[in-house]
Specification:
Length: 195
């Protein structure tokens, strides 16, 4: 929603709220401003301006069409606000998923460097906290991630390719495809582990 449209909606809605707050405002003015019967503000302002304005606003607030307009605009403002919040939430989720994709790709590169040396999975002990953190983040978004079986594989190629493929799709914003891709690795992990 554009900025000016949001300001317009809230401005009209704010104007419609004035007759609703008029009784409260009138009471407050009576108690704090017009409380001195001999004061200049009481004599001039109350009789000349305040009374007719408050009477007209109270009468406006009692009109049937006004109540309908208030309910109608309240619905529009609530709907627009919910849509804006939903869009912001989606944008935040997309940003977090892209960041996760970047983390996956970085882990893939780190694992690729380590595969040249022997000693899997002992040679990635320092990467395990980062791997577990990435897995926990992925689970938060309901992405399938390998379990401890991945460390029983003969080398890190499975994990390296999983991170590369799923991470690329996440970085590209293809979240549904990334989810399908992650799930497609599940049978392969258990087949390789059992063999």
């Amino acid at each position: 929603m554009s900025k000016w449209l949001k300001q317009f909606l809230f401005g009209v809605w704010g104007l419609l709220l004035i007759p609703l707050i008029t009784p409260v405002l009138e009471k407050w003015l009576e108690e704090h401003v017009f409380s001195d019967p001999n004061g200049m503000a009481t004599t001039v302002f109350r009789n000349a301006v305040a009374t007719p304005v408050f009477d007209n606003l109270l009468a406006l607030g009692q009109q049937g069409w006004f109540k309908f307009a208030l309910v109608f605009w309240t619905g529009i403002v609530l709907g627009a606000s919910l849509e804006w919040l939903n869009r912001k939430s989606d944008e935040k989720k997309a940003s977090e998923l892209r960041s996760l994709g970047s983390k996956f790709r970085s882990l893939s590169d780190s694992l690729k460097i380590r595969t040249a040396s022997l000693g899997w999975p002992d040679n990635v002990g320092d990467l395990k906290p980062a791997i577990m953190s990435a897995f926990n983040s992925a689970r938060k978004f309901q992405l399938w991630v390998p379990d401890e079986h991945v460390y029983q594989l003969p080398d890190a190629s499975f994990l390296c390719e999983y991170f590369r493929c799923v991470g690329k799709l996440l970085e590209d914003g293809q979240f549904d495809r990334a989810n399908r891709e992650a799930l497609s690795w599940k049978p392969f992990l258990y087949n390789v582990t059992l063999s």
